[in-house]
Amino acid sequence: MRHWWGIAGAILVTACVATALAATTLDADLNASDAASTTHCRLRFKLITTAQAARITFSNVSNFLSARKVATEGDVKKQRVSLNQLVAGSLVSGTPVSMTADYASKPQVADSPLSCTFDQLGAGTSTLRVYAVSDSGPRLLQSVTKTTPEPASFSLDLSNLSDDDVTSCNVPRIAEQRMLWAFYYPWYNAPWDSSILLDRPSIGYYNSSSPSVISYHVNKALWAGIDGFISSWWGPGDQTDSNLRLLLDIASTKGFKAMINFETLEDANPRSASTIVNWLSYALSTYGGHPAYMRVDGKPVIVLWASDTVPAPSWQDIFAKVRARGFDAIYIAMTAGDWPATDSLETADGWHYYNILFVIQAADEVPSILAPSYARVRRTVHNYPLLTPAAAPRIWAATAQPGYDDHLIPGRANPVLDRDNGALYRATLDAAITSNPDWIFLTSWNEWWEHTHIEPSVNHGNKYLQITREYAQEWKQQ
Question: 277 lies in a domain?
């Protein structure tokens, strides 16, 4: 297990933090929808430390709407801003660094003390300064200092927030709402039967380059209420490239959509920045104008696989270089964990989870962990524009998944998520819909190796398309 400061071998007592996290209350707005206007205040937290690293953990975030890193000072090597946590450090004792983050909060944050835990790595002095930010500038509310590594609990008294600190503004949302998408893998070449497969397609082991197979998939997906495929794409000249063209051409005749799932990794490592720039430019110039390619506000949409393996500043540079070539897009980053850091929302236009194993490790954790995580993430994503100079909307795509089982693949040791005759799929669809997403992503249409498929199969028949159709009709009529 990695320690929070990212240094192997260091020791820090974290029992107090675990207690604080365990006390975190579930969100009260699981069924809430964004209003046209959001009333909020802006809190600014500045964490300064000469220790190797310092961390603030908030034990109740029900009044926090979103969080955004504003600035760093010094040689910051470790940093994190999430809805429940701030981390900053140089990883060298005696080197002063700081990080500043803004939190959009409901005005009710002033009604009761905000419980926090403050800990640091090694000797040094750490200070947290809390400000209210209004049109007249930041106003100091409270300052807390610690000089020892042991975790310390404290409360922030925010009762001196005033009416001048509260404002209302519209939170933008994309116009293209309630779309249902499935991850699609156009990489199959018959025969691909294998001893590591637990199931097989009802139509047999097919070729992904067959127009009749693609037509069959699109027709079945349309029947189930799916609006489009997120097609795995491995770059120019790959079979997934030529098959994407076939998919788009067939989709355009059926009122279906498609968009790229950009495969960021080559083996286990991210592709070079220059390769990503070239591939994105090619994809946007080649497919962005196709009538079946999905666009938001006139821009093609690209879903990024494993985007967190590339630092957010690198993505910012990559996107700038692609735009300099005349190609702009909407990018949906992949996130992970039940308390994701928000830095990728600065450069990307939205978030999705590919696999619910990024959040939970067992099927029975859907109601207790996945559902409240989705609610927090939705709140974080949709309200992020409250903290940005340009209030462009951010997209929240919640993931539903029928199961997961890759235990027969050599070298893998992931938990198995049993399908439970469709119960897991229904539970994840419920969690996704309840989070009030813009879109829902289904993992997957046909990832047969990890057994996340909903495509008609020998073992399950049309069960998962029937469930999809049922939920799609209900959700789209809400």
Answer: yes
Please give the tally of structural domains in the chain. 2
Q: How far is 453 from 357, CA to CA, in rounded Å?
A: 15
297: in domain:
yes
Strand locations in 264-329 (E): 265-266, 269-270, 295-296, 299-305
What mean pLDDT value characterizes the chain?
A: 92
Q: Is residue 186 located within the same domain as residue 276?
A: yes
Whole-number pLDDT of residue 36: 57
CA distances from 443 to 239, 401, 428, 451 (A): 21, 5, 11, 10
Give Dmax (Cα) for the chain: 69
Q: What is the CB neighbour count within 10 angstroms for residue 80?
A: 22
pLDDT (tens digit, 9 = 90+) per residue, 142-198?
A: 999 999 999 999 999 999 999 999 999 999 999 999 999 999 999 999 999 899 999
Q: Is residue 273 part of a domain?
A: yes
Each residue's pLDDT tens digit, 292-316: 999 999 999 999 999 999 999 999 9
Q: Are strands 85-89 and 78-82 parallel, antiparallel or unpaired?
A: antiparallel
Give the strand pairing for 137-146 and 166-170.
unpaired
CA-to-CA distance for 468 and 394, rounded, in angstroms? 25
The domain containing residue 321 runs over which residues? 179-476
Q: What is the pLDDT of residues 309-347, one digit of tens each?
A: 999 999 999 999 999 999 999 999 999 999 999 999 999
CA distance 267 to 249: 30
Counting other chains too, the contacts that 407-416 makes at CB distance below 8 Å and 24 or more residues apart are 408/195, 408/196, 408/197, 408/198, 409/196, 409/449, 409/450, 410/196, 414/357, 415/357, 415/361, 415/362
Q: Where are the beta strands (DSSP E) in 362-438?
A: 395-400
- State the sign of the Cα–Cα–Cα–Cα dihedral 363, 364, 367, 373: negative
Residue with tokens 């109601």: 367
Could you tell me the two tokens for 113?
A: 């003390």
Query: CA angle, 440 as apex, 434 and 444 as ends, to 5°?
Result: 125
Compute CA 52 distance to the chain's CA centroid, rounded to the nearest angstrom: 29
CATH of the domain at 367: 3.20.20.80
C-alpha pair distances (Å), 445 with each of 217, 354, 371, 375, 419: 9, 13, 22, 25, 15
Q: What is the distance between the alpha carbons of residues 287 and 243, in angstroms, rounded to a whole number?
A: 12
Q: Which residue has the tokens 């919640």?
A: 398
* Cβ proximity of 82 and 381 under 8 Å: no
